[in-house]
Amino acid sequence: MSADRAPIALNLSTPSAGRRGKPPRHFADLSAEERSAAVVELGEKPFRAKQLATHYFTHLTSDPEAMTDLPKASRDALAGALFPPLLRAARVMQADGGTTVKTLWKLFDDAKVESVLMRYPSRTTLCVSSQAGCGMACPFCATGQLGLTRNLSTAEIVEQVRAAARSLADGEIPGGPARLNNLVFMGMGEPLANYKAVMSTVRQLVAEAPDGLGMSARNITVSTVGLVPAMKRLAEEGIPVTLAVSLHAPDNELRSELVPINTRWSVDEVLDTARAYFDVTGRRVSIEYALIRDINDHAWRADLLGKKLVARGQGWVHVNPIPLNPTPGSKWTASDPRVEDEFVARLRGHGVPTTIRDTRGSDIDGACGQLAAEESA
């Protein structure tokens, strides 16, 4: 293997990385069978696991005081053993009249992650983190510049979701009580580099109550910078989540600078695998493209991207250009609106469905990783 194709160290399944310890075992880390075994180990009948699942996934609580259908002694012991605190809010910021809420969480070992809850007139969406930091090293990304601290456990991801769902259910977000409709793995980290925990989370989210949140897999999006083997594995899961590919450039020369993993799997390899994902699942793939002023926003690059996508067929893909949310002190900034409009027009001219992605929270350090970076400074 040549030097420029040297292997990049990736771990697609290990639940923790680096020097930090493993999070304590939590109810959300366990399968239904494991939950029953866990309550039996604690001296309870197996049916207590179903009661706990109902409280956690249906009532969205892990507070033993709320578990009034369990004996007092049992609820305290079960909650103490199976619901250890995993997240604590270190900072909460709001925008858009309180309908966008960004939370900086500290984990059990003081690692930091972020989630963003966004309420729209007709839907609610949560963006979750799957890693503390990120090892992909994309230079324009605040999280990428933090480096990778560790993978999150399944429960640490699920707890971000439960907290948001509870906030909506309690009417804490303007607009009255609501359900969480959509989930996107577009927060801190590369989701497919923490494959095992991410897929375990997805299975719990789509499981019917009381064993899960009962969400539609079609309303869950898993993003990736293009880890081809994991993309292929995802296609075979039988869970029709939406795949989003963070491309950011249609040519290998530039993409290798913006997305270093491109030296391992090229633009064409990534797009071929994305097309294959559509063939297997029938789910249209999203191409995410951060528009960076004078870097990747040229009209000829829009044409090249359009040609590459159309060459792989029609109806399989949708492009989301994203005005870059710049980080303080960074040389990277958003494209001029006129350049952005031309880029979109070029793609549409090739017959590629294209929608500028709504960017919320620019006034609250909206780019993932900014709050964590500030706290670490």
From TrEMBL:
Residues 1-25 are annotated as: Disordered. It catalyses: adenosine(2503) in 23S rRNA + 2 reduced [2Fe-2S]-[ferredoxin] + 2 S-adenosyl-L-methionine = 2-methyladenosine(2503) in 23S rRNA + 5'-deoxyadenosine + L-methionine + 2 oxidized [2Fe-2S]-[ferredoxin] + S-adenosyl-L-homocysteine; adenosine(37) in tRNA + 2 reduced [2Fe-2S]-[ferredoxin] + 2 S-adenosyl-L-methionine = 2-methyladenosine(37) in tRNA + 5'-deoxyadenosine + L-methionine + 2 oxidized [2Fe-2S]-[ferredoxin] + S-adenosyl-L-homocysteine. Coiled coil: none annotated. The keyword Zinc does not apply. S-adenosyl-L-methionine binds at G189, E190, S223, S246, L247, H248, N325. Binds 1 [4Fe-4S] cluster. The cluster is coordinated with 3 cysteines and an exchangeable S-adenosyl-L-methionine. It is an enzyme of class 2 (transferase). One of its GO terms (molecular function) is rRNA binding. The active site is at E114, C368. It is found in: Cytoplasm. Keywords: 4Fe-4S, Cytoplasm, Disulfide bond, Iron, Iron-sulfur, Metal-binding, Methyltransferase, rRNA processing, S-adenosyl-L-methionine, Transferase, tRNA processing. Residues 120-363 form the Radical SAM core domain. SUPFAM superfamilies: Radical SAM enzymes. Its EC number is 2.1.1.192. GO terms for biological process: rRNA base methylation; tRNA methylation. Its main location: cytoplasm. Its cofactor is [4Fe-4S] cluster. GO terms for cellular component: cytoplasm. InterPro entries: Aldolase_TIM, Methyltransferase_A, RlmN_N, RNA_MTrfase_RlmN, rRNA_lsu_MTrfase_RlmN/Cfr, rSAM, rSAM_sf. [4Fe-4S] cluster binds at C134, C138, C141. Specifically methylates position 2 of adenine 2503 in 23S rRNA and position 2 of adenine 37 in tRNAs. Belongs to the radical SAM superfamily. RlmN family. NCBIfam families: rRNA_mod_RlmN. Reaction proceeds by a ping-pong mechanism involving intermediate methylation of a conserved cysteine residue. This is Probable dual-specificity RNA methyltransferase RlmN. The gene is rlmN.
